[in-house]
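Posting for a labmate who doesn't have an account.
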Amino acid sequence: MQSVRNNDGIDLAYDYLPGAHPVVVFCPGFASDMGGTKAVMLRDDCAARGQAMLRLDYAGHGASGGAFEDGTIGGWVRDAVTIIRHAVNDADVILVGSSMGGWIALLIALQWGTRVVGLIGIAAAPDFTEDLIRPVLTPAQRQDIALHGLFHAPSEYGPPTPITARLLDEACAHLLLRGSIALRCPIRLIHGQRDPDVPWQTALRLAAQLDSEDVSIILLKDGDHRLSREADLLLIRTVLGELIVQNRR
């Protein structure tokens, strides 16, 4: 495990596996980390291929320092960029983003242009703060936000998750689905149609806004949000393998 300090003085944890380029970079989801099933599976897959791979934890996540409640979309994008620049320098990358990590991967790709030679969204959740959280806030949650600056959302994946007013408000500067998205690299979107957290139609909305003509959507009729079953993991490996072959140096 390695680390680099961000501009706020927080130590950000990452794990870099040397190998052939482009470097596969995994961006984890909201309140998730680089120790998750998909991240570890991709590390093992890249190790078997001899492919370089980078896993990372944003501030407030996993092995990184900082408080989760202090995080924002823009801050987590900056954390990811800090780690990628430190770990892989100017290498080309394939970004793989799970859930919120899909949103962060898209935002990174918009900054890095042609250095991003491929992108995979796994149940990608761009704009989830505005489209999936804010519209369903209960009166009690709105009151908690007004009085305390946050509320705790129940989660089937673990303890309740703190959702802050700062997170919701800051995210408005990073919304993507309201207009065209100036990305032209190959993009693959994998989404389960039984996803209870992020509607599969999000993948269709995202594809419609992307400038790239090389966009494929794979819908799994019985797939959930995690997409961590053996068949799901095999599909992710296969899709990644195709992008690696297309871009290998």
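Reply:
Got it, the structure tokens are right above this. Helices lie at 37-49, 73-88, 100-112, 128-133, 139-148, 165-171, 201-209, 230-247.
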